[in-house]
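Troubleshooting entry. The earlier prediction with heme C gave an output that would not parse, so I re-checked the input for stray whitespace and re-submitted. Clean input:
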Amino acid sequence: MMNYRILVSLGLISLAVASSAFAADSGAKLESQLCSVCHGRGGTTSSELFPQLAGQPAPYFIAQMKAFRDKSRSEENAQRFMWGISSRLSDQDIEQLAAFYETKTPAYLGKISDQVKYDLGKDIFTNGHLDKGVPPCMACHGEKGEGKESTPRLGGQHEVYLKRQLKVFYGNERPAAVAMHEVVKGLSETDIDAIAQYLQAQ
Ligand code: HEC
Ligand code: HEC
């Protein structure tokens, strides 16, 4: 009886592993046909125009794709680049793409061009700016900006993309980002530059 139960539960586990591997395989096909031309093979690219997707947690990825598709994420580049393509994807396509990208090795740019900015960025990321009401970014985004569930990975992301998104949060073109609308209120332009410099080097 005991052995039977163990076998059954092992069977269920391998079934679950097999089905997420299947989702990632189907995601790989979609990725090479529809996404890699901009985001790079496997979701890493040296082009600063396109955000890195490798290692992005699936729940965050899925939420963003649906927000492009229903046009609730509406900053200029979202409209230009992501509204059209997302309208062609089913929920299942989006889930398969999310499973694919989540398992890819994230980019590591490691490039520190300004040590003073880097140190300031690290300080804000780790400790916040408590006198200005800015909480430590690390508390939600993880120690190295690795992200978790519906909170995005920031480590290894392009500096240009990070800066642009932090400025988007001053407005209301990403209405789902409730926490970020509060967070950016206490950040100056210098702080944003510094944080982006720190994060892209993780
Ligand atoms: C023509 C180029 C192009 C193609 C093709 C494209 N993207 Fe994008 N994608 C972009 C750009 C540019 C952005 C950044 C938008 C912004 O800055 O607001 C983006 C943003 C994203 C984001 C948000 C990233 C984040 O960190 O919030 C996701 C997720 C995404 N794309 C997934 C995909 C997937 C999946 C495909 C294929 C089905 C795809 N993209 C195809 C250009 C493209
Ligand atoms: C209370 C939790 C929390 C804190 C603290 C926080 N964030 Fe976020 N952040 C989020 C969530 C959740 C999102 C995803 C928003 C969405 O769904 O659109 C996000 C999104 C972002 C994005 C957009 C990433 C992308 O791929 O488009 C950036 C950049 C960012 N945060 C930077 C920061 C920085 C820098 C700090 C510290 C100054 C910080 N965050 C503090 C929760 C937090």
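This one parsed fine. The pocket of heme C (ligand 2) is lined by residues 51, 63, 124, 134-135, 137, 139-141, 150-152, 154, 162, 165-166, 174, 176-177, 179-180, 183, 195 (CB under 6 Å).
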